[in-house]
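Please decode residue identities from the backbone states below.
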């Protein structure tokens, strides 16, 4: 779909926190306009009242663009200019939106994440411009293992890495039922996303990146989504350089859904492009993965799966693609085997990438420990906060359930035999559907 141009308008960024808050008040608008006379009705009293209610809940994020001048009569906005964070915050605090009955409503912390050709305020999608919409469904900062996301462009709905898992044993403990409840939510969300997907991408065949034939109780079973996988285009990592276990999983999946999983490395189809194989972590250890590039207009999103910031090859390919937003696995800080030299190299690559793109989202391996979360925040402070995790991007509170497994067992002891009963379908997570993070 081609949207008519808006006069005197440039990107306003960072609505992620506002999206969830506004959705809480049932504000859900998609407005396509060719002039400000059509835009004006959006600012009715009910909408402004909802914004006013939630504005105090929105936490500050650095801005790369701001209003040059406040709305005056909802007729237009001067083209904005790049500004420092301090200047952006200072000016934004002065922005006032005038309702139709001329009662000014201050909105001190309203961050407009995408205000290009489509104005979208919603609880589920984060826009990066020109209609590219990204929803991250599963990742460690969202409570589960995985790096699943949905990307919509003009005419395509792409589901990448539709899988979920939980660390089967951490610190000698099975997943706490609170995390099992999180996996149920993510599995349901993946199922809904696949129902009308036009494309499905599998970056490699680890258990949290695709539906599993022999799924354990905490993974996504292919039987649950097999029908939805019968119609979309399938783009899959080739098996030529994978472990025997991954090759078996690929063959079993293809057989179960009765479709070929053609190796897609190096292919391009419309807005989608796929990388040559790049290392899963360090070269020579763990095989390879396939990265995905999705383009709409001048906007580019890259899904970089399990690169872990441990190889130059992956970073060079990402930069050659000129993305605006990248979703990737960060370094596995939780692993004792990660050497100081590897940490230093991962930091160097992260800084290089973050300083050359608009937004770098690191999650997955990085967010399996609270030490990894501290690493993210420390490095983010060096990048003008362009480095965030999946939960930050989606405007949700971080929920590192795997990192907090021991503490959850202490807070909510698990009845003996619960996991075995859950696997048999004789226990459920009704009493464990908690989304608050432990203090």
């Amino acid at each position: 779909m081609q949207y008519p141009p808006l006069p005197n308008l440039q990107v306003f960024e960072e609505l992620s926190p506002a999206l969830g808050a506004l959705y809480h008040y049932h504000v859900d608008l998609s407005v396509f306009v060719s002039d400000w006379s059509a835009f004006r009705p959006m600012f009715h009293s009910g909408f402004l009242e909802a914004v006013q209610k939630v504005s105090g809940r929105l936490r500050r994020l650095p801005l790369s663009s701001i209003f040059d001048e406040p709305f005056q009569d909802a007729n237009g906005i001067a083209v904005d200019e790049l500004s420092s964070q301090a200047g952006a915050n200072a000016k934004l605090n002065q922005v006032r939106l005038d309702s139709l009955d001329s009662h000014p409503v201050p909105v001190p912390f309203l961050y407009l994440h995408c205000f290009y050709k489509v104005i979208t305020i919603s609880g589920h999608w984060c826009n990066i411009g020109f209609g590219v919409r990204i929803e991250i469904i599963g990742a460690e900062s969202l409570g589960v293992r995985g790096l699943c996301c949905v990307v919509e462009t003009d005419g395509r709905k792409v589901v990448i890495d539709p899988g979920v898992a939980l660390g089967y044993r951490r610190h000698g403990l099975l997943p706490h039922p609170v995390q099992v409840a999180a996996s149920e939510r993510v599995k349901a969300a993946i199922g809904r996303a696949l129902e009308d997907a036009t494309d499905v991408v599998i970056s490699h065949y680890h258990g949290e990146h695709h539906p599993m034939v022999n799924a354990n109780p905490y993974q996504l079973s292919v039987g649950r989504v097999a029908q939805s996988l019968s119609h979309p285009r399938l783009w899959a990592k080739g098996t030529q350089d994978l472990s025997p276990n991954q090759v078996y999983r690929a063959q079993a999946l293809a057989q179960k859904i009765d479709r070929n999983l053609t190796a897609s490395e190096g292919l391009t189809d419309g807005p989608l492009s796929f990388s040559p194989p790049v290392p899963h972590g360090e070269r020579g250890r763990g095989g390879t993965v396939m990265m995905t590039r999705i383009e709409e207009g001048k906007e580019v999103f890259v899904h970089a799966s399990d690169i872990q910031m441990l190889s130059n090859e992956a970073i060079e390919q990402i930069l050659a693609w000129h993305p605006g937003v990248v979703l990737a696995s960060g370094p596995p800080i939780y692993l004792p085997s990660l050497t100081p030299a590897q940490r230093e190299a991962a930091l160097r690559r992260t800084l290089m990438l973050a300083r050359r793109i608009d937004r770098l989202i690191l999650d997955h391996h990085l967010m399996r420990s609270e030490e990894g979360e501290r690493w993210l925040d420390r490095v983010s402070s060096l990048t003008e906060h362009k480095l965030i995790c999946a939960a930050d991007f989606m405007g949700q509170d971080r929920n590192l359930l795997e990192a907090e497994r021991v503490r959850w067992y202490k807070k909510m002891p698990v009845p003996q035999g619960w996991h075995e009963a859950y696997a048999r379908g004789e226990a459920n997570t009704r009493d464990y559907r908690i989304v608050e993070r432990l203090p």
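Observation: DSSP finds 13 helices and 19 strands in the chain.
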